[in-house]
Amino acid sequence: MKNLSVGMAKVDITPKLGCLLYGYPAERVSKRILDNLYVGAVAIRQGDETILIMSADICAISSALTWELQTKIAEATGVKAENITYSCMHTHSGPVTTTAAGWGNADNEYLDATLTNGSIEAAKRAVENLQPAVMGVGQTECYAGINRRQEIDGEIHLGQNLDGPYDPTMTALVFKTPEGKFIGTIIHFAMHPTVADGHTLSITRDWPSIMMNTVEGMTKAGCIYINGAEGDIGPRLSNGLSTANESQIPVIGSIAADSAVEAINSISEYKIPEIKLLSEKIHLPLEAPPSYDEICREIEEMGDPSTITETRLLRYTKLNKLKEMHENSEEFPKTMEQPQTIIAFDDLALVPFPFEAFCNIALDLRAQSPYKETLLLGLTGGSNAYLPTEDELPKGGYEIGSFRGSVVPGFIDGLDKEIVKENVKLLKALKDK
Amino acid sequence: MLDLYAGFAKTDITPPLGTPLFGYPSYRPAKRVLDNLYVSATAIRQNDTTVIFMSADLAVLDNSFCEKLYKEIEKETGVTAKNITLTCTHTHSGPMPKDTPGWGEADTDYLENTLAKGALNAAKAAVDSLTPAVVGIGQTDCYAAVNRRQFKDGEIVLGQNPDGPFDPKMTAIVFKSPEGKYIATIIHYAMHGTCADGNTYSITRDWPSIMVNTVEVMTSAGCMYINGNEGDIGPRLSNGKTTADESQIAVIGSIAADSAVEAINSIEEYNIPELKIHSDNVYFPICEIMPYDELLKKIEDMGTPEEQEANNALLYNRLIKIKEMYEKNIPFEKALEVKQTVFALGDLALVPIPFEAFCNIALDLRAQSPFKETITLGMANGQFGYLPTEDELPKGGYEVGSFYGMAVPGFIESLDKEIVKENIRLLKQLKNK
User: Fold this and answer.
1) Which of the ends of chain B has fewer CB neighbours closer than 10 A, N or C?
2) CA–CA distance, B39 with B55 (Å, rounded to integer)
3) Which of B211, B217, B218 is the mutation pick for testing A, counting most A CBs within 10 A?
4) Whole-number pLDDT of residue A390
């Protein structure tokens, strides 16, 4: 007979007041705390296999750092590094956790001390807390989010696009003791936590704060939030924009909280699912770099470097790196290797994506998956860049600029289809295991 | 040479979802949690004297509940009951803590199983964590609040009265280890926790949440908030009213948070002050009771119980209780005897007031006090209702109606002056100790 043990723990990782905030290009020194940041861990054991599903209330971290964290957590807990799924929930009002041209440099002291120690501690405690469990999965539709790629005067802006792709599915993975006491909850839903905008000087989890507090109040057990394919999804704010200010956090958070409660209450059966996982390395195809002359010409065309900002600055920085690689006769890699572990709980599959993927990628993955339900875990295993669908690339806009500027030498335009293809292959292999 | 010890602890007392919320007459079962509620305790010891200041994130408490709780804390910690003071932060978005006709009945299950246990645990943990300490006291002016008794169309309504009495003083009492590590902070400021209005279905500490969170992260230590004479003081909301909705919590909370940081940063010296306490009975004179026949006529004139709303429900209930006293031959006392303990930390005196007292009472007490600074602890050791200044009674309004309806059999109209007089007597005795 199958057995299941689950443990949950959360550790406070709120940075110090005065730390710089990440999420918008503006330099913002934190002045106050709306709500604390945490890293949460859910340890799940079946037979000899233990997995850790973790989520940190920060914007994003690199794939390299994520793997380093997973390795350290593995050393501390005995759980295999590839069995650890580490997500960032993507608040735009947390510390600077990654370096991006024009957006600031990663706060290494925070990453090395607070985040690393907090993550290890949460994982250790979650493993220590392992206890017999059953699991329920509930879903509901939540309309707190909306596609944010709005066309205005022939250009794509960050706003609201009511006709754009949007996945309202909110999923609750709930763990209880066999006696019915809640152990922990994972809520999955795709939406940018950008209710608080670039004028915000407060540290906050943004709208997920209200949702997690509510679930924790309801269940008297820990809750973590894992973002989905939020690349083109923002909050459905009453100002018609994709950002507002701190005062709107309760408004959007309350809608999400109500949906989370609904998703949990919709669970009609708790049982011990069969857990399967599969770890592979997938290869993400990279584009052939422009020639040296093309790079030089584009750099020159971009004009005075001191006037270059936002996604153009990302592009400018990338071009200069490529130029350097040409000058040093460095070899341009053809693919980027990415460790990938997919997990299935009976009919539900979890697929980590180290990107801010567009909504349609999650929908494609779900449609092609052999599993009844498949969730794309956004910003999980690191964050390489935005990942638009190929059909959105010609339209341009902020996310496209970021996709074109973030990775050296750059991904191919059809990366979305390649990733879906690779993961569907893994899902089929997992299903047949 | 003097020595001083301080310890701090707090316990989560968030009620379950579905709990009816207290603070407005409307029936509001809690649907979500914006932020958790706590009961906090700061223990202070000098030589053989230990005191515990406690604060619960609730609206008000009954005096008898506090008395019973203090006895239990005394039994568990050895700290004399009269040296314990429990205040309420006065959120209007917490559970029902006290029977209030027209507003609902006390949630006795919550009071016994969550609050009493939580308070006992916090008190024990605070005493257990007593450690050598120095104290710093800082003050600043904070304009997050405003007098809320607005004169409109010949009536006093709940709104904003920028010309009305208002005490902008915010006080930070900060405890550090002799090596400079923060142990705890008490923030004192007078303002209703009413940013969230009667349409709010969320549990929240209201604006103090942001302030306390900010101080806790700034100091990496616990913080508790103690309200002052907030009877006629509300948040200075941009809608010109005294309530708004959850969205304004961040706005008002941020102003208060900035002031709290300023108050702490203003502290120039940390030292070991002399801790002094003085306990005595004080007397709150009872009003003249109307003759039985007159009482019956008044009750009859008011109509049926079902017709009574808001303050009329309070008054109706009071008259019925007086009628019962007549019928059961319960004697009407001349004054209510109340056990009162006043405290001093060096030049700062702390005076518990078991009322929602008006601002001018705090200012009078401060002006007449023999101490350099005197602060009133609002809703401390329970709450007998609003306590307006006598000159405000003829003007009427919500607080005045409550004053006339809440206490049984009722107080004299000049109770404000009596309370100041009684406490000045105690403060003088304390000063001369």
Assistant:
1) N
2) 6
3) B217
4) 97
